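Q: Got a minute? One more chain.
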Amino acid sequence: MERLNLFDLEYRKDPYRYHAELRRSAPVTQVDPGGMWAVSRYDDIVEILKQPTRFSSYGQRAAAIQPWLERNPLADSIAMMDPPQHTKLRAFATDAFKVRVLPRIEPLARAVARDFVSRARGGGEIDVCDDIASRMPMGVIANLLGIESAHRQRIRAWNDDIIAINPGTPPEAQPRIRASIEEQERYLLEVIEERRRARRDDLVSDLLDAEIDGRRLTDAEIMSFLFVFVVAGYETSSHMLTHALRILAAHPSLLDRLRADPAGIPGFIEELLRFEAPVQVVVRLAVAEEEIAGVRLPAGAVVLLLLASANRDERHFEDPDRFDMDRRQRVSIPFGHGVHFCLGAALARAEARFALEEILPQIHGAHVTQEPTWNMSLTARGPLTCWMKFDPA
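A: Always. Here it is, folded:
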């Protein structure tokens, strides 16, 4: 088959038919941009994720650091580290998340969803990406970091630029992305200094106070935590909410079922994560020459693990291209696997549940009115715009 380009517009619209062909005929193969190696089958991907000494998470830096980019604190985050360094730093984040995150977000998330419903019930077209899918995670991140409301819109701009960093980033976008990273780093450093002078009830203060075995985080380590939290916290939740509303529009019977029985929402979310994984790719680096599915990979090969393909692998999921919230096979990997299982997975699930619990009782029907436009991130896939109309209950 012709070498696949992960930024081809047809692929962005529907990657799953391409994934199916890869699983059938080329489960380990080079793709564009840059001739990176894509792995598409579930078993191969899980095995690689279990082997950080053979397949290093420093491979993520291949996407986060480009020749035209002098600095990116995201590249120094725990998402791009291997044990034992990853293990030590993750302990700081795990401690802060356990204490602060989930108990604080519910009132805010539900308030954003109720505000969305008040507009959706008006009957006009709404871009759900710009409305609830952006506003909820943006508000949650800002609240958890203690970012003032006047600066919250900057979160989306920073995120949009950072996720656009990849081997195929067009030259005309590169100066804007460099400026965006500098702006975000400068602003977050001001926030860190403010919290050092006077603690608040927020995640930045928690990170400043966190201590493991007598050691505290450096400013550079806190900065990298904040960068990965902004990117992961925004991107995953935003795409989940948009995908959820699109799927409900495509399956009216599901909408009726969840309206009648909201207890089914968690099961719907799990099937959503399998069917439309917001994180589609994770990147690893082959430490030495390796063989996967009979294909030799050279030492230093950048390896793309297609999580979205693994979650539709017919070897593990019966009729994988059918959305079935009653399916018994639940062992999908939308948030990775092993030591790098996403810290924000519970946060993303909770945001989606709170939103759907508020929205579904108030609407009777959902309709996509325009073809969505899609982002160009190497690792995440979701609409940039998704215009919809809703019938009030």
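A: The radius of gyration is 21 Å.
Q: Perfect, thanks.
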